Amino acid sequence: MTEDGRGGRDDEDGRDDGGGERADGGCRADGSHRPDGGEQAGKRSAVRSLLRLWPYVRPVAARLFGSAGVAVLASCLSLLIPLVLKWLVDGPVARHDPAGVWLGGGLVLLLGVLEAGLFGVRRWLVARPMAGLEAHLRRDLYQRLQRLPVAFHDRWGSGQLLSRGTNDLQILRMFLTFPLVFLVVNSTTIVVGFAILLTQQWTLGLILLVPVVPLVVLCSYFESRYSLATRRAQDQIGDLTTLVEESVLGIRVIKAFGRHRSQARAFRDQSHGLRGTELRKAALLGDLWAVITGLPDVALGAALVAGCVQVSDGSVSAGTLVAFLSTALTLRWPVESLGWLLSLSNEAATAADRYFEVMDTPEPPDAPRQDAERADGVERRAGGAGTADGIRFDGVRFRYPDAPAGTLDLLTGIDLHIRSGETMALVGATGSGKTSLTTLIPRLYEVSAGRVTLDGADAALMPRDRLRSLVATAFEDPTLFSASVRENVLMGAPGASDEELLRALAIAQCGFVHDLPDGVETQVGEQGLSLSGGQRQRLALARAVVGRPRFLVLDDPLSALDVHTEALVEAALRQVLATTTALVVAHRPSTVQLADRVALLSRGRIAAVGTHRELLAGSAEYRWLMSGGTDERSAA
Ligand SMILES: Nc1ncnc2c1ncn2[C@@H]1O[C@H](COP(=O)(O)OP(=O)(O)OP(=O)(O)O)[C@@H](O)[C@H]1O
């Protein structure tokens, strides 16, 4: 049974019914949707990875170093306590002097309070700057993601990007706040502590130093294995995030097809994998911890025995042995914590690697603004270019950057002229490349060869923001954002007046907006899912036309509308299309009727251009498409 009580396509014992679809729950479990950093993790230097954070750390370095200084001071104060104990045992206690014992006790208490106070100051010094640093890293990552091309987002799983912007950045902030400082503090404490031990009783001090060499060797062995496991775990978190995100966004499909069990199973498998990696990390950490605590404890036992022998033969005072052992015990935590701090540093180095993998992805070059302003001379607004040339495709070839090697170009030589003020319909079989062709106009993808010109200006030489202020697009999939209707529509023309907004809503037949609880201020919810498909499509259309763009690209803009609304939208759209140059992807004769001429896309080329009537008369493929054919093989 499904959770809503009906029999579903996932059977009772949770086995997949076969369906043959994505048993991995929609996430490519092989990790092909993100660069595999596992190999590099073994080779890279953790220190070098972490040093790359310096530009972000520099502005808060004074506070960071200050907090480390305060923590070193606090830690050194704790090392004074054994010296007070030595004085207490050899002096007031030996002399049976109660006033001296009270004084010694008071001193120890004072040192303890000072130490706690200094650690409080350390935290105060770093808390705020580190939160700012994390925000800075996150802002830069977000800006980079916005600037990277669509092809980059095609390659990367959204969960991978999400986990880098959340989990990894948290790890980095925590590392800079705590482990980094305590690596410095504890190392300093260990050095100072050993100096005190050696001056107190050098023979016993040397016994404690014996495990240092095996510890260093074991730590470096551990470091390389742990970094591999860490990288794997952080990548698995990214995959898991992708799966959760897809499940939430696709919840309607999952429920409608009763796929919740297989989805839950995919989630369980992936979280099981992550659990395995975390257990592997814990086992490695456990081994290291056993060595890091065991070897010094054996050395401490040996020093204790040797110390007792020295006290019994009178070569060392009881107070010196007490002070020596207290100092050695004070050093226990700094030594033991090293394993844990090293593991956190390793996780931070991996997080830094993952962060910079995105930040290092080169942005496509953009044309210098001043050249473009001079060169293109294109009017921004509709109806503004009297002698303009419209849109031209000259010998345009295109293949997706992530297309498998050896596949043929999708577009193999497009020559098409959409005259200024003209509306051209683009017709072709499913998968023939219509949407791909339209994305080349606002340069969501770059042409592989040839060029696209807008009123004679090469689109490739225009800065993207200028180009995109000239070209407005309504996509086949009308994406809306978690914002008000007004904000969603005005994305197409920030700063447009209320009049313009209402005009665009009227053209797109968005009268329903006025019946929403807060009118144009109504929040449309995540992805606009609170609206119907047709309503979303109309809002996307309003967004495209609100800025009266010079060039308009509409990808099957009326597909989700009922015939009556379609007729109303068409009538209003005609007014807009009359004042702009437009390319409209069309699947139905009713949409084709909006256009002055029609271009037929077939086998990567424009096979025919003419009026609807001319193509009906002259092209068998066009006739077949307009009669409702959808099979791409037959069309090709
Ligand atoms: N991001 C991408 N990476 C690689 N290949 C892609 C990508 N997007 C689309 N394709 C492929 O390009 C081909 C053309 O897709 P496109 O969406 O342009 O066709 P279309 O003519 O608009 O189809 P439809 O009429 O169904 O909307 C398809 O084979 C598709 O699999």
From TrEMBL:
Q: Membrane-spanning residues where?
A: 60-81, 101-121, 174-196, 202-222
| Keywords of the record | ATP-binding, Membrane, Nucleotide-binding, Transmembrane, Transmembrane helix
Tree of life domain? Bacteria
In terms of one coarse class, where is the protein primarily found? membrane
According to the entry, every stretch annotated as the ABC transporter domain falls at 391-628
User: Which Pfam families does the record associate with it?
Assistant: ABC_membrane (PF00664), ABC_tran (PF00005)
**One GO MF term attached to the UniProt entry:** ATP binding
Bias kind Basic and acidic residues: ranges:
16-37, 366-382
Decide whether keyword Transmembrane helix is in the record: yes
User: Where does the ABC transmembrane type-1 domain start and stop, copy by copy?
Assistant: 65-347
InterPro entries named among the record's database cross-references: AAA+_ATPase (IPR003593), ABC1_TM_dom (IPR011527), ABC1_TM_sf (IPR036640), ABC_transporter-like_ATP-bd (IPR003439), ABC_transporter-like_CS (IPR017871), P-loop_NTPase (IPR027417), Type_1_exporter (IPR039421)
Q: Where is the segment annotated Disordered?
A: 1-43, 360-386
Entry's CDD domains? Answer: ABC_6TM_Rv0194_D1_like (cd18543)
Cellular compartment(s) = Cell membrane
Q: How does it sit in the membrane?
A: Multi-pass membrane protein
* PANTHER family reported in the protein's UniProt record: ATP-BINDING CASSETTE SUB-FAMILY B MEMBER 10, MITOCHONDRIAL (PTHR43394:SF1), ATP-DEPENDENT PERMEASE MDL1, MITOCHONDRIAL (PTHR43394)
Q: What is this protein called?
A: ABC transporter ATP-binding protein/permease
Q: Which organism is it from?
A: Streptantibioticus parmotrematis
* Lineage of the organism: Bacteria, Bacillati, Actinomycetota, Actinomycetes, Kitasatosporales
